[in-house]
Amino acid sequence: LDGKLVSLLMTAQAEANAAFGNSDVYIEKYLEEPKHVEFQILGDNLGNVIHLGERDCTVQRRHQKLIEESPAPAVTDDLRIKMGDMAVKGAKQVNYTNAGTMEFLLDKNGRFYFMEMNTRLQVEHPVTELVTGVDIVKEQIKIAAGEKLQYTQDSIQQRGWAIECRINAEDGKNEFLPSSGIITDYHSPGGPGIRVDSYVYNSYSIQPFYDSLISKLIVLAENRKQAIERMQRALDEYIINGIKTTIDFHKLVFSDPAFQKGVMSTDFVENLFKKE
C-alpha cells in the first residue's frame, strides 16, 4: 500500500479505537466514472428465475434516480449475458420469488460490482415492460397465485429503446427543493410511444408530507436517438403549473451532449449544473 494511505489508515484506526473501543475499519474500492445498472428479475415458486434485461439508472440526485432507460447505453451484448447470468444466479441462491431487481455499479473499464437487491417492483419498471412486452405486475400476481413462469430466458428479447423521466414536485434549478401547492394547469403529452403513469390532475393539491414523485413520463422508440427526440417533444408538451416540477430539469438533461452520447456517470447531475 502507498505510504500515505497506510498513514491515513492508521490514523482512522486510532480515532475509531479511541471513540468506540474498536479499531476495525472498512476499505472500499474506488470506482472511476461508475454507472448504475440494474437487472429486472422474475422468479416463481418452482425455482424458475429469469431476467428481463437491464436498465441504466445513472442520472441521479442525492443517490435517488431521476432518469432510467433500457437497454443501458454502456452494456454490450456480452456484458449483458455476464451480468444477467450473475443476477439470475444470485436470485436462485436465495430461492427468490416474485419480481425483484439486482443492482450493480459498472466502472469505465466494464467491470461490474453487486450493490444491492430491491425485493419489490420498482418505479422504473415501465421501461422494461415496454422493451420486453412483459407485464411485470401481471406476472407478480401469477407468481403469487403459485403459477409457473410463462417465459423462459430464451423467450425474452429487448426491442426498441425506452426512457423514463421521473416528474417530481421539486425545483430542479434550486437543489431539488420540494414544492407543494395547487396544480392550476395540467396537460399531459400523448401520441405514439408515449406512456404517462400519474395520479395528478388540474386543481390537485400537492402536499408536503409525501414522496415528491407525481408522474412518470415514459417513451418508446426504435433506437436511443429517436427515444431522446420523442422525450424532448413530450417534455415540451407536458404542462404542470402552480408548483415547481423537474420538467425543465429534464429538458436540460436531454439537450446535454454527454447525455445524448450516453457517456454519463453517477456525478452527471452535479457536473451538469457546473456547466450552467
Summarize it.
The protein has helices at residues 3-20, 77-93, 125-132, 136-144, 224-237, 247-254, 257-261, 268-275; strands spanning 35-43, 49-56, 60-61, 64-65, 67-70, 98-106, 112-118, 161-168, 170-171, 177-178, 181-182, 185-187, 194-198, 205-206, 213-221, 239-241.
Tell me the layout of helices and strands:
Blueprint: H1 3-20, E1 35-43, E2 49-56, E3 60-61, E4 64-65, E5 67-70, H2 77-93, E6 98-106, E7 112-118, H3 125-132, H4 136-144, E8 161-168, E9 170-171, E10 177-178, E11 181-182, E12 185-187, E13 194-198, E14 205-206, E15 213-221, H5 224-237, E16 239-241, H6 247-254, H7 257-261, H8 268-275
Helix pairs in contact: 5-6
Q: If you had to describe this structure to a student in words, what would you say it looks like?
A:
It is a single chain. This protein has 276 residues and is an alpha+beta fold. It is built from eight helices and 16 strands. The strands form six sheets. A four-stranded antiparallel beta sheet has the order 2-1-6-7, sandwiched between helices. α5 packs antiparallel against α6 (247-254).
